[in-house]
Amino acid sequence: SDLTSTDLFDLSPVVPVVVVDTLDQAVPVARALADGGVPVVELTLRTSVALDAIRAIAAEVPEVVIGAGTVTSPALAKQAAEAGARFLVSPGATPSLLAAMRETGLPFLPGTATVSEALAVLETGHTAMKFFPAEASGGAKFLGSLPSVLPDARFCPTGGITLANAPSYLGLANVGCVGGSWLTPADALAAGDWDRVTALAAATAALR
Ligand code: 3PG
């Protein structure tokens, strides 16, 4: 891939965390986000159509950087890479999952929620990570406590982030971007309300 893990922080202030229930939602939701100025999708591996959705977006929406989220096993890391994911995001990390994500050659954000978990990732030489579940794990106050002890670690907090609380994270020196599902509500996807997705995406431009 042409991207490094730290480059992932610069694609958009908000990385949309997307759950597609049916394959026909995949391409239009990616196009709707791009139309709203958000050129990245974290497509979560939570539904049976997720890998096919990644394949479809990779093939049909080249203006979007398509990644895989909810990568919870070494096998899923490999399958996501084979489907055309250009980056990987996990909610947590084990030694074998870290190794498998690295093995794909793709940029990746391993999930961490404690200082010890962040240290374990840093020990592997990797500085870019997800902070999950952000609001439940101490939020911006927790992340703001880290630069003095973990100056190299940079985070994409996800979990409970909204348009309203995103600025409290994006103002921190160790936060590169935030992630969230609020740009792609399940009912908008089910109804094919792509204009609503585009409007929610466009509203994040004010966070830059
Ligand atoms: C994730 O996988 O990062 C979360 O499901 C996103 O959390 P949110 O739904 O609270 O935005």
TrEMBL record:
- What pathway is it annotated to? Carbohydrate acid metabolism; 2-dehydro-3-deoxy-D-gluconate degradation; D-glyceraldehyde 3-phosphate and pyruvate from 2-dehydro-3-deoxy-D-gluconate: step 2/2
Gene Ontology MF term list: 2-dehydro-3-deoxy-phosphogluconate aldolase activity
| Keywords for this protein | Carbohydrate metabolism, Lyase, Schiff base
**Pfam families found in the cross-reference section:** Aldolase
Q: Which InterPro entries match?
A: Aldlse_KDPG_KHG, Aldolase_TIM, KDPG/KHG_AS_1, KDPG/KHG_AS_2
**Which Enzyme Commission number(s) are listed?**
4.1.2.14
- Reaction(s) catalysed (UniProt annotation): 2-dehydro-3-deoxy-6-phospho-D-gluconate = D-glyceraldehyde 3-phosphate + pyruvate
Q: Which NCBIfam families match?
A: eda, PRK05718.1
Q: Which family does it belong to?
A: Belongs to the KHG/KDPG aldolase family.
How does this chain assemble?
Homotrimer.
Please give the name of this protein: 2-dehydro-3-deoxy-phosphogluconate aldolase
> Which organism is this protein's natural source?
Nocardioides albertanoniae
